[in-house]
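As described in the Methods, two query proteins were run sequentially through the folding procedure within a single session, without resetting any intermediate state between them. The first query and its resulting C-alpha cells are shown here.
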Amino acid sequence: MTTEQVLMDAKAAKGKLALLNAETKNAALLAIADALEADIAAILAANEIDLVNADERINNVMKDRLRLTSERIHAMAEGIREVAKLPDPVGKVIDKTERPNGLQIEKVRVPIGVVAIIYESRPNVTSDAAALALKSGNVCILRGGKEAFFSSKAILAAMRKGLVLVGLPETLINMIPDPSRESATKLMTAVDYVDLLIPRGGAGLIRACVEQAKVPCIQTGTGICHVYVDETADLEKALNIIENAKTSRPSVCNAEEVCLVARKIAPDFLPRLRHRLVDDRLAAGKQPVELRCDPEAYALIGGTPAGKDDFDTEFLNYILAVKIVGNVEDAVAHIALHSTHHSDAIVTENREAAELFTAAVDSAAVYVNASTRFTDGGEFGLGCEIGISTQKLHARGPMGIEELTTYKYIVRGNGQIR
C-alpha cells in the first residue's frame, strides 16, 4: 500500500469515526487492549527483529527505549483501558449562552479529524497515539521510525484485529508502510488529507516538521530539563529527586539533563551528588552518570569539564551537565537562556523562592520538590499522551484526549434574521 492510499483511506474514514458514540469507542478500545495482549508473542518476535537490526546503530540506552517486554505490552494495554475509562470529550458543551434576540449559542468539543503522528524509536507510541485518537474521535495516521518498524507493524496488526472484532473498519487506525524521509515529507504537505501533524522524536525531526509542514503542526519538545537545588533545599530530598530524574529512564524527554546548584551549598552538596550518581552506582554495578561540570563545579568534584554545548544538549544518556549559580534568580536566568520549555524543577524549603521559580520559569511543567519524570500523560491522569507540547497554542504539556479536539459553535434559532 502506498502513502497516497493510506491518506485516502484515512480521509474516507473520518466521517464514520466522528459519528461513533462513547460506548462504541470504548468497546473498540477494550477490544484493542485485549488483542495486544493476545498477540504478545508476535509483537515480541517483531521487536526482536528491530533490536537485531538496530544492534550496531544505537547505544544501550536507546535500545532500552526500543525494547518491548511482556510487562511493557501489558502496560500498553492497561494504558488503553485507562483511556477507555475517561469521559468522552466529543460533544461536551464548553460554554452556552442565549442572546437577547433568542439565539442559543453552544461552544461544543468536536474531533480535529485526521491526526498524523511522526515518531521515532518508541513502539509504545503506536498504541498510545491510536488509543487517544480513537477516543477523541480522530482517525490516526502513524508513521514510525525505521528502528521500530517491525514492532509498530505488529502492534498495528493487533489493534486492527480489535477493531474488526467490534465491527469497525480497520482504516480508523492507519500506518505509513514506508519509514523513509520521503513519506514523512508527504505527511507534512498532505494539506487535503491531514488536519493536524504531531512529531514525536529528536530535535532534528521536530525542527524538520516545524519548518517544512504545510499542515497544522504541534511542536512537541526536546527536553533539556533542569533541576535547581536552592540554598534552602533538603539535600537528601534533592539527591533523591536528581537521581530519579536522571537515571530512572535517561532516554526519555522528561529526564533531567542539567543540574543547577546554589553557590552557598555547593561545597557540601556537590560531593554528595558525585557520590550518589557515580560512586554508589559503580559499587552497585550500575552505569554511573558522567558529570560535565562548569569550571566552578569542576574545581570541587572533578568529573568532565563542560563543553560549550553541554548546557544546550538533550543527552538522552547517563550524562548530566552541572553548573553553580548564585541564587534562584540566577537559576531562572540560566533556564531562560537554555531551556526547551519542557519541564524544570526547583528543590527548596523556601516558599518565596518556589513562588518566584514557578512564576518566572516559562515551561510547560514547572515542579517544586518533585522529579521532572512526572511530565507524562499517565502520571497526569490522562491515561497516556500523544506527545508533550512545548508550544503555547493550541495545547501545552502532556496532550491527552481533550487536546486532540477542537470546538465549533452550534447556533439554534427560531427564524431570526440579521
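Immediately afterward, the second query was submitted; its sequence and C-alpha cells are:
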Amino acid sequence: MSAVEAEAPPAAIRVSKLTKSYGDVLAVNRLSFSVPEGTTAALLGGNGAGKTTTISMLLGLLLPTAGRVSILGVDMLKRRYDALPRMNFSSPYVDLPKRLSARENLMVYARLYGLRRPGRRIGQLADELDLTAFMDRPSGTLSAGQRTRLALAKALLNEPDVLLLDEPTASLDPDTGDRIRSYLEAYRDTRRATILLASHNMAEVERLCSRVMMMRAGRIVDQGSPAELIRRYGRANLEDVFLDIARRRRTGDTREAAA
C-alpha cells in the first residue's frame, strides 16, 4: 500500500453489486462504488438511469434484490437505524405537508430527530438559508424555489454526516443557487460531511464534486473526476460529456466502469 493510499479517508458510503429488479425490469444492475468521507460525489444519468432507485436503497426505503450497502460503517440491510440518525435526504420533488407552515414542518422533523433545542436550530437554518420571511406560511403556498430551500433546511436539521441530495438547487435563481452551493461547500468542509448528489446541472457538479459516476440503464458506465472525464472525452465541459454518454457516442476512451 502506498503512502497516498494509507492516508486516504475511509469510505463513508460503500455500495457493492447493488441490484434492484421489478419482474423483468432491471432498474439497478450490480452497481458498485464508494464515496470517501468528507467529499462530494455525483450520481448522474438521464431519466430512468436508476439514480432515484439507488438513492432509495441507500436510505433503506427500498430493499435491494441483491448486493450490499454500507454507510458510515453500518450495514444498511441489517442495522440501518444505527446510521439513519446521522444521515438525511433532500429533494424538491418530495412534498412536505402542505397545510403545515414551513416552521411547523421543520419542527415535526426536528422532534423526529430528537433535537434538544429545535427552535434554535430551525431559527439558525431559517437565517442561513434565507427562509425567515415565509416561515409561518403554509408550505403549499410557497414558490418552487422556496420549497427547494425548505427541503434543504429539513435535510440539515440533524447536522448529518452523510447528505443525499436530489437536485439541491432546482428552481433557484442563479444568485440563490450560487449561495446555496457555497453553503454546501462550507458545510461539507466544516463538518467533514459526505455528500452524494444527483443533479442535471453540470456546472454545479463540476464545482462541487471531486468524483462523478455516470449511469445508464442501471449501470455505471464511466466515472472519474470532472476534469478526468472532460479530458477523456475531449470535451470542453461536463455537459458535453453527459450528452456523449447519454447518446452512446464513443468519443474518447468510453468504457464500462465499476468502482
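Confidence is low (pLDDT under 50) at residues 252-259. We note this only descriptively and draw no conclusion about the first query from it.
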